[in-house]
Amino acid sequence: MRAPLLLLVMFVFGVAASAQDAPKAAPSRFEGQMIRAIRFNPPDQPITADEFNRILPLHVGSPLHMDDVRAALAKLYATGRFADASIDAEPLADGVELRISTEFTYFVGGVDVDGAIGFPSRAQLLAASKLELGEPFEASQMGQAVENMRERLQANGLRLGNLQYHLHPNPATEEMGVEFEINPGPRARFDGVKAEGKFARSIESIIHSSGWRRGFGPLVFPGWREATETRVQTGVDRVRKSFQSNDRLEAKVTLDHLEYHGKTNTITPTLAIDNGPIIQIRLTGAKVSNRQLRQLIPVYEERTVDRGLLIEGVRNLTDYFQARGYFDAKVDFTERTGDADAHAIDYTIDRNDRHRMVRIEFAGNRFFDNATLKERLTTREAGFLRYRYGRYSQHIRDEDIQAIRDLYRSNGFRDVIVEASILDDFGGRKDAMAVRFQITEGDPWLVDGLEIEGVPEEDVARLTRIMESTPGQIFSETAVGADRDTILAYYSNAGHPSVTFDWSQTPGEAERRVKLRYVVHPGVREFVRDILVRGLENTRPSLVLAQMRIHAGDPVSQNQIAETQQRLYDLGIFAKVQAALQNPDGEEESKYVLFQLEEANKYSLTAAVGAQIARIGGGITTFDAPAGQTGFSPRVSLGLSRLNLFGSANTASIQTLMSTIEQRAIASYLIPKPANQDNLTLIFSALFDNSHDIRTFASRRWEGSVQLSQRLTRTNSLQYRFSFRHSAVTDVKISPELVPLLSQPVRVGLLSMSYIYDRRDNPTDTHRGILNTIDAGVSLAAFSSQTDFTRLIFRNSTYHPLGKDIVIARTLQFGVINRIGGLMDIPLAERFFSGGASSQRAFPDNQAGPRDLVTGFPLGGTALLFHSTELRFPLFGENVGGVLFHDMGNVYTDVDSISFRFRQRDPSDFNYMVQAVGFGIRYKTPVGPLRIDLSVSPDPPHFNGFAGNLQDLINCTSTNTCQTTRQIISHFQFHFSLGQTF
C-alpha cells in the first residue's frame, strides 16, 4: 500500500508543479503576440514606472519581439541598479503578459570605524578598506577590505586585537552601510635592532640614531617605544640621515623585515645597510655657505651621483652667481675617484666681473605698457637692500622671453617675436648693464565666425554671451580653452555629467582670421532623486537640510554639491564632509546624492604661551616712571570649547588669559545662522577683566553683551551690539582732588552699531584694497547707565601697491566721546587710552594724551586723532620685509581741543600732534607677520612728575606745596608684536 500511495503523491505534486511552471516560458515562444500587461517582481522597483516606460522598448499594446526583449535586458543592466534581471512571458487569451524579475544592486552607503586607535587614524583605515561612497557593493569586497585594514593595524604594532564588520542594508535606498568594529588590544613595542650589510658602526649607535629606544637627545631611559608605522619609517630615515650626514650621500638604509615575537608582543626591525662611499663636494674660485650648497647641488637631495645631476648643479651654481651680479659667471666640474670608499667632486667657479642690472627696457610694444610687461619678468633691476645688483641670468632671460611671448599669444598675437639684447657699460658705467626686450607684435588674429553644434538653439544664445571667442574678438588657444571650461561647467551644472567638447578651426575670409567650430555633446541629463545624509549622531537633521543647495528634482550640479559641502564645513562642527552620487556610472535619469558626515570632536582645548616686551604697566602703587618702564610680561592663555551644543551647531566656550598685567576670562555662546539666516551670527558673552595695562590705575570690569552680526554683501557687514558693564578702578595715581570725579565705580549700558566695509586682498598681510569701519554707540539712563554719553570711532585704511613688491599703506583713526548726562565727567574706565604698537608708536602702550599735572600719569581723553603711513618693501629673501613709517596724532581732552600743532607749548599742554618716524622689520609666519618697530619722536611730551608716595601726595596737596620733577616721554620707543600695524 505504501508504494502505490507514494507514487500517487509524487504524481500529484508533479502535476501541480507542471501546472505551476507551464505558463512561464521564454518570450521567444510568443514572438509577435500583443503585450497586454507588464508586471515587475518585486513590485517596488528603484526606478519609477514613468522612467521604465521611457527607457524600455517593451510597452503594453505593442507586439512582442525578441530584439526588444534583449534590448530591454541591456537597458536594465545599463542602469546599474540591478545585479540580475530576467523576463518571462505568460499567455493570455488575447496576447501575452510579461513578468520582469530583478535582483537589486546595493551601493556603499557609508563606512564607519568604531574603536579608539590613534594610529592608524580613522581616515587611514577607511582609505585602506577601498569602499567608495556610492559605488556598487559586493559581499566579496569585504574579505579584501578586512585584510587591507588588518595590514594597516599590524604595520602599526596592533597584532593582538580583533576586527569585525557588520552590514546594514537599507532596501528602500539600496544602501549598504558598513561598520567595522575594532578592539585593537595592546600595541607592540620595539625590543632591539638587527642590521645586515656593509657599515662601520656599532648596533648601539644605530639604535640611538633610530630613536626607537626611550630617551631624549643623548639621554637614554630604560625601555622601548611603541611601534607604529610612522615611527618605524621615521627611525629608518633617521638612521639613513645619520650615515648621510657624514658625507656618505649614497648610503642606503631600508627595512628588510619586522620580526614579531608573540609571547612578549614585541618586534625587532632588521635593517639592510650599505653606507656607500664618502662623497666630498668642494668649490674653488668662490664661496657658498654649506646650507646654500646643499640646495644648489641636487646630489644632496637625490642621494646619488650621476652626470645629469652634476650638470644640473652647474646650471644652479651659474644661476646663483648670475643672480648676484656675476652675469658672466662660468662653472665647471671634475670628478676624482680614489679608492672604493671615496668620491670627490670639484666645482670650479670663475665669477668674472660683477655688474649691476640698472635698467630694463622694452621696445616695439604697443598693446601692453611697460608696467604690465615688467610684472611678468623674473629679471629685476638693482635696488636698495634687496637685489642690490639686480637679478639676471641667461636662463632667467630666456624664461622672461617666453613669458612675454605667452602673454601676447594668449591675447591673439600669434605671430609675435620677442628678442632680448644686453646693453653693456650702460650710462657710461663699466659695471652697469641693461637688458632690452625687442618686441615685434604683428597684428592680432581675430575670430571671423563661430558655429556651435549639438546644443539647442536657446543654449547657443546663452553660451555666446559668456564666451570669449565670439565673432570680432581676439583668437587664441587660451580663449578657446576658457570657452571649453565655460561650456563644460554650464552643462555639468545643468545635470549633464558626461558632456564632451571638441573644436576645430578653418581659415577666415581674410588674413589672420579664423572660423571656429565647437561641437558639444551634452549627453543624458541627470536629476536628483533624493538627498541622503548619513553619519549624524548628535547633529539635528533639520540643521543639515537647511544648508542644502541641491534638492530632490534639481539637475545634478557639481557646483551646488560643492557649495553644500562648503556650507556644512562652515558650520564648524564636521571634521569631514564627503559627497558622492549613488551609482555614478549607471545610465538612469535620477540619482541619489549622498552626504557622509563625520562630526568633529565635541570638545577642543587650546593653549598658548607668549610674552610682551615693551614699556608696560605693572600695577605698582608708587609714583615713579609715569611714562612706563621697559618690562617683561609673560602670558598664558587657555581655552575650552564645546562644539555643536544641542546638535544645533552652537558653540559654548571659555577663554582665559593670565599675565603679570592682565587677568581675563571670557565665556561666550555662539549661534551661527540663527533662524537659518545665512548672513547672521549671534553671540552672547560674559567678561571678567582685571587689568594693569594703564599705569594710572588698575581696572576691574564685569561685562555682559549680545551681538548680532549681519553680512550684507561680500564687502559690507553690520554689527548690532548691546553691552552692560560695571567697572571699578583701584591703585589710582592722580591728584586727590580728581579722584572723586574720575575714579568712582561706574555702571554703563551701551547700545552700539558697527559698519564694516572691507575690500582688502588679504586681511593678515594686505597689499591692495580699502578698509572702512564706523562704530557708533550711546549710553543712556534708560539702559541703567550711571553716565550718559555717545561714542563714535571711525577708521579708514587704504593700501596701494607700487610695482610688484612695494606697498604704501595709510590709516586714519578718529574718535569722540560726548557726555550728555549722568556723572559730571566721563570716568577713567570709559575714556580713550591709546598709543603704542597699533596706534601711535611715539608712545608706550596707553601713554598718549592728557596727564595729571601733579603726578604725570595719563588721564585719557574724550577725543583721538591718529594718522599713520607705512612704506612696506621686501628686505631679505621672500620672508623678511622692511617698513618705513610715520605716525602722528594724539589723544585729546575733548573734540574742541584737537590741534594740528607739532610743538608742545608747556608741560601742561598735551593737546598737540605728536609725531614719530621709524623703521620696522616684518617676518612672515603662517599666522601673520611678526614685527619689530623702532621709532624716534622729535616732539615727545614733557610733563611734571611727582617724587614720593601716596601719603606725601595727600600732604602736599592739602598745603599746595607739591614738589614736581620734569620728565619726558622717551624720544626712542620699540614695539614687538604679531600682525601688521593696520
Would you kindly provide a written description of the structure presented here, covering whatever features stand out?
This protein is α+β, with helices and mostly antiparallel strands and 982 residues long. It folds into eight domains: 23-104, Ubiquitin-like (UB roll); 107-183, membrane protein fhac (Ubiquitin-like (UB roll), Roll); 189-274, Roll (Ubiquitin-like (UB roll)), CATH 3.10.20.310; 278-350, membrane protein fhac (Ubiquitin-like (UB roll)), CATH 3.10.20; 356-440, membrane protein fhac (Ubiquitin-like (UB roll), Roll), CATH 3.10.20; 446-521, Roll (Ubiquitin-like (UB roll)), CATH 3.10.20; 527-600, Ubiquitin-like (UB roll), CATH 3.10.20.310; 604-978, membrane protein fhac: a member of the omp85/tpsb transporter family (Porin). The chain contains 18 helices and 43 strands. The strands form ten sheets. The chain has a 16-stranded antiparallel beta sheet with strand order 26-27-28-29-30-31-32-33-34-35-36-37-38-39-40-43, with no helix packed on it. A hairpin with an 8-residue loop joins strand 24 (574-581) and strand 25. Helix 4 (122-129) runs antiparallel to helix 5 (141-155) and helix 6 packs across helix 7 (229-244). The N and C termini lie far apart (109 Å). Residues 1-23 and 616-621 have low confidence and may be disordered.
